[in-house]
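Look over this one:
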Amino acid sequence: MDPVNDLAELLDIAWDAAEIGRRLMTTTSPGRISAKSDRDLVTELDVRIQHEIRDHLRRATPGFGFLGEEDGGGVLASAGPVWVLDPIDGTSNFAHGLPLCVTSLGLVDDGEAVVGVVVAPFLGLAYHAMKDGGAYVNDARIHARTNDELGRAIVSLGDYDTGPDAAEGNRRRFAITRTLAENVERVRMVGSAALDLVWVADGRTDACVMLSNKPWDTAAGVVIAREAGAVVTDLRGAPHTFSSGETVAISPKLADPLRALLARATN
């Protein structure tokens, strides 16, 4: 199967896979909760959802690659089609009973995200997009906001850093937080990278700024944001790739002024 020529069929496969995550998240307890690293959790349900979705995708698309967060990380292959999964993006939210959590599944072909499905079961929201096909929530077409005033912008931030080098990693985060707080309408921290991206796509926020770029966090959301008209780059404004150090999605009319603000905060 050529993923470039069969995106609609592959989107259907992705929907069926994401339904596994929705069903299990809404019917199954988190189970045992473990620490992967400093303040980074994994539940038994994360692992179960990943295994079931991986098995489904291997049956439906034999020969495609697979990269999931709960395999211990890994490197996204630069060639060929690869399914990229976060079984529960927002695990800490899920473990604490907060509804801001999703199953996020993207298809990356030769380094480009071409299909994305993000399902937020406790919010009743299901997002999808395929390359050159537009972006949708619950089958309604969505577009990034047209706001052109920073003072009216809602900007979400990725989580603060954890681990032994957190203090160093958070210096830039604190600087960005302060600069945004002084210039935009409100700053938000959702706790799910996929939701950050699709809410820019949906016009719920004007931008999201994440000083990290794990493919399982961003693969689905990036194609959905781009298909909704958002500008997706790294912190310096270069087009986002899965080797970028950061992920920044911005509604188009705010792209230049917000990037200038971020540059001021980090220089």
About this structure: The chain has a mean pLDDT of 91. Residues 40 and 92 are 8 Å apart (CA to CA). The first strand starts at residue 33 and ends at 37. The first helix runs from residue 7 to 27.
